[in-house]
Amino acid sequence: xxxxxxxxxxxxxxxxxxxxxxxxxxxxxxxxxxxxxxxxxxxxxxxxxxxxxxxxxxxxxxxxxxxxxxxxxxxxxxxxxxxxxxxxxxxxxxxxxxxxxxxxxxxxxxxxxxxxxxxxxxxxxxxxxxxxxxxxxxxxxxxxxxxxxxxxxxxxxxxxxxxxxxxxxxxxxxxxxxxxxxxxxxxxxxxxxxxxxxxxxxxxxxxxxxxxxxxxxxxxxxxxxxxxxxxxxxxxxxxxxxxxxxxxxxxxxxxxxxxxxxxxxxxxxxxxxxxxxxxxxxxxxxxxxxxxxxxxxxxxxxxxxxxxxxxxxxxxxxxxxxxxxxxxxxxxxxxxxxxxxxxxxxxxxxxxxxxxxxxxxxxxxxxxxxxxxxxxxxxxxxxxxxxxxxxxxxxxxxxxxxxxxxxxxxxxxxxxxxxxxxxxxxxxxxxxxxxxxxxxxxxxxxxxxxx
Length: 451
Hints:
This protein is an all-alpha fold. It has helices spanning 2-15, 18-34, 42-49, 62-73, 80-89, 92-117, 131-137, 142-174, 185-204, 208-236, 238-254, 267-282, 289-293, 301-330, 340-348, 352-386, 391-407, 411-423, 425-434, 436-449; strands spanning 120-121, 127-128. It has one domain (8-438): Hydantoin permease (Orthogonal Bundle), CATH 1.10.4160. The protein has 20 helices and two strands. It is globular, with a radius of gyration of 21 Å.
């Protein structure tokens, strides 16, 4: 078993190696150019995200599609992922992560545009779309659509379900000393599993409309509460904030020398880990978010594409950046032997119980929202492979997997799911690059019409 775990871990590392990081970031840059720097329309996109497109086909509002996608992307990567990038790449990694978000807006815009343009109506009268339909309808490559759907279905159960449920259970066990009652680790895991299972069933068995309604309340609250908490932490450390920003910028282009217990990192490490964690956090280019974008009520694919593009802005340019500032300003990253969780605990604890509450509530809500968002991605992948008859059994299986993930952990499963998550990007990026002309022409049509 150990040999299998090692083999799968090597496979995941190979998939998420420098080649995929380069391919994703290069696609971000290319699509930024092809869309005429779509980022400059961010203000218009944010305004569209809170308006409706009356009388348009679709299952959920544009805002509902956005928050459901954000539910899946805002997760542990926005906290622990930032800490990991900082520990391995130094403070400069935070800037490279932020830049990944800025340029990733163009890729998130492009994949949502194609998803809406080539979406279809399933046998239940609901919208279905995403890279698998783009590959089939626009490129006549159904086999590639099947490959993407298989990767998505597998990745969803791991990285979008069991890994997240286990993270919540582990956190509760780690904080058991502050609970008002005594319980063994096993009983805590069992309690978390039952609670999560019931809550997940209550939300996802109602389908995408139920998920969107719940996320419309949860996602804005959790993101606003976390960002506000980070701002409070930074206000109390305002005297360190200027130096932290300067360190982040200079380290991105000069590297960070060894200091305290930090062993040092060069420019290459800052770029590699910052870009990699940024890509992993906002999922731009992986092909996940456009699946729910296709369900949005809109007449124009560009309109929903603009709304979807704001997801990368909120996820990486705002939330990840706030985490990075808190962690760098704390100075705790300089201590030797720090883990991702240890660094976050130390940095947020500078404000006592308030900081602890910001971290714990942020992690718990981020993780649970990921379970909800990814349930829809996996559902649509399974629907593409096996038809609408597979939807209800899939939902029950998803709920059961949440319980299993709460009480059981397998490194091989986590790494295999991570590998599938990365492999999703390959057929999706191929479609984006091959259809970049369509993306450019649709964008030109829309903005020319706006005068």
